[in-house]
Amino acid sequence: MTENRRLGVLISGRGSNLQAIIDAIKAGRLKATVAVVISNRADALGLDKARAAGIETLVLPQAPSSTREEYDQVLVQHLQERQVDLVCLAGFLRLLSQVFIDAFPNAVLNVHPSLLPAFPGLDAQRQAWEHGVRVSGATVHLVTVDLDAGPIVEQAAVPVRADDTPETLAARILVEEHRIYPQAIARILDGK
Known about the structure:
- With 192 residues, the chain is an alpha/beta fold.
- The chain has a single domain, classed as 3-Layer(aba) Sandwich (Rossmann fold).
- It is 36% helix and 21% strand.
- The chain has helices spanning 16-26, 46-52, 68-81, 98-103, 124-131, 166-189, and strands at residues 6-11, 33-39, 57-59, 86-89, 108-112, 135-142, 152-159.
- A seven-stranded mixed beta sheet has the order 3-2-1-4-5-6-7.
- Strand 1 (6-11), helix 1 (16-26) and strand 2 form a beta-alpha-beta unit.
- The chain is globular and about 50 Å long.
């Protein structure tokens, strides 16, 4: 039964966490299938990674005349048509509305480059570096309508070195994101 677990992955950019999911599936560490990768940006590099892996891709930019709820309903429709069990945000740079959350209750995951609840939102690595913390990290959490505030599924700590820049810190955090995201997906799919 585990081989039928279907993921929908939403991206906006380079797709490195998408690639980590694809690699974990290929290596047998994650028993699931990526049913579809959807991007709100046609230039998202992650689309090429999905296509190279033989995964269906869709580009769905939000029409200027549509509301966030209307856009989310279109996303929901595409994901439900593909019988997605779990939605994974992998650098999807949009806030989801209650319409989306209600369609996938406790079935939307996000990976964030900080130890939440510290440093939610954009550029978390720079926020941590500027704040002078000694430890930052990565968090996988269930998504709610509140920004980066859902229940935590998994975290990994990353020390902040004296010679770090926001970029070097971000690179080390990304390694941990790639490690813990597939693990957290498996935990949720396994009902843990």
